[in-house]
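User: Second chain of the day. Same drill as before.
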Amino acid sequence: ELLEPSADKAAVQCEVMPDSMTVSCWSDKCWNGGTAAQEAAAVSGNEITLKQGGYIYEIEAHWTNRPGYHGWCRYAFYVKSQ
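Assistant: Same format as last time:
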C-alpha cells in the first residue's frame, strides 16, 4: 500500500523500541525494468527523514540490551513524498 505523508519525517513506534535500527531505501524508478541502488536513509532517534519522490524503505531493527528481547526484525513500506 502506498503511503502519502504530509511531513518529511516518519516516526518508528514499537511497543518495545529497538536498541538500534538501520534504514535503507530504493527509488521506485526501477519498477519498469531499471536498476535501483540501495541507499541509506537518515535516522535520528526514532525518526526517518523521507526522501522526495517514491521510495521503498526497509527498517532493520535490533533488540540486544533488553531482558527477554533479543533478535532482529525487518519492516518495509512504500512512501511517495512531494
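The mean pLDDT is 88.

User: Great, on to the next one.
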